[in-house]
Amino acid sequence: VGMLGILKAGGAYVPIDPTYPEERIRYMLDDSGAELLLTQSHLVDKAAFDGQVLVLNGTQSVYHEEDSNLEPLSGPNDLAYVIYTSGTTGQPKGVMLEHRGLCNLKTYFDQEFQISTSDHTLLFASYSFDASCWEIFQTLFCGATLYVPTSETILDYERFEHYMTEHQITMATLPPTYAVYLEPEQMPYLRILMTAGSAASTELVYKWKDQVAYYNGYGPTENSVATSSWPVSKDERAGQLISIGRPLPNHRVYMVDVHGHLAPIGVAGELCVSGPGLARGYLDRPELTDEKFVPNSFAAGEVGYERMYRTGDLARWMPDGNIEYLGRIDHQVKIRGYRIELGEVEAQILKVEDIQEVIVLAQADEQGQNQLVAYFVAERDVSAGELRSLLGEELPNYMVPSYLVQLEQMPLTPNGKIDRKALPAPEGSLQSGADYVAPRTWVEVKLAQIWQDVLGLVQVGVKENFFEIGGHSLRATTLASKIHKELNKPLPLRSIFEAPTIEQLAVVLEQLDQVTYASIPVAEERSFYPLSSAQKRLYVLHQFDPQDVNYNMPSV
After folding, report:
1. What was the pLDDT predicted at 89?
2. Which residues lie closer than 8 Å to 444 by C-beta, 6 or more apart?
């Protein structure tokens, strides 16, 4: 209601996730220059705001004014929304998007998806990420019906599948790391699935390509949600190759080499995009805007293509006209679908007292998922728990490094630069500080095996806190799912937050009525206990959390 009201009144909205740290919320409110804050009663005290506050779920008096439809006020070049993304300066930056970028998407919705009034679409993404624009406006443009599941539903795969069936959802856009956990046969009404936000996998492609009309999309926030799309189900070579497809209607994509020339087919270059989806730039960041939004020398002055955006992504044209995504060419990475500037994380760590040096890297874990690893030098011993707590006051959870490694000094190359290859492996660097205590009962042994599988650790003690040794809400969801599957225990997600150690969780499980487990002492020879049957590559949820940690759908 608030978002649509702002747009119809001719304004531009700035979505702010209420689970962000208060300092980040205050910064976004101040930096955006917002004059009006639309909120809900339980969030009024979340951040200090000097402007006008309107409580949307307040008394009916809020809605007593004239209720006739408004005359159209905004044109194609007017601002529609400003979304904040991670910034290299240590503060997020606002990306300014115009109405024409959203309107341009309708051509694709009509031509490719053929969405109609009989379709039921899904709002999976958080309002604070532009993927929500894709979901909301494809529904409104085409007269379909939008369904909004709760975060609790999204955090439970089986419950989510039931929701999809109960409401006969026909169109969904999901992160690859979420879709791979779902079973197509459990959602018989789904006719179109689109994945976006992070790289799709061969496993995901084979799972979905013959079950629904499956698409894999790509696009930075700076280009109005989507830049390209690959119709997986229509490609006979799907699975043998993974692509981000071809440009959407009215979009131009260029692969540019280090000399500023167009790269030939098959040769990697920086992916640059031009067209009506381009953002106006970064709010009050003229220098950064000029750096990223540059004159388009390849369009020969064509109207609408005068500028192009340098994405910082590495890609190449394939012989068939599709695009292969190859990764990042700078220090910007994607973690669980979120785009993160490593410099912003480093800047926050350097604010911690006594920390002298820091370098933050993204490294793949045993499941192939990127994790942030922070290496730091300090004048005193800084525990992982202390540092994680301090960072959590300033950064969203997904930007807090999973691994925190303290070094006596940074390894250097002969020319004095940090030798990244000499940095130690992060395994074992996430200990909570608790002394190791081995599993003592059958339940604790099974839980330890599941934890090791989910966290990618060699050993976990029963007194170690899940959220201090690499766990987060995404992994908590996976943990609950595996416990249900392997122990036949439907464990509520909140139990992991309330009982975050193996010792505590074992007590919770033994108290459940469904199955009673006997506390069998662990034998000396542990090989008696089989390894978890779920030791395979993990794909984890990327979205909300009803607790005070936030997860949002990544940008398409």
Report:
1. 65
2. 462, 502, 503, 506, 522
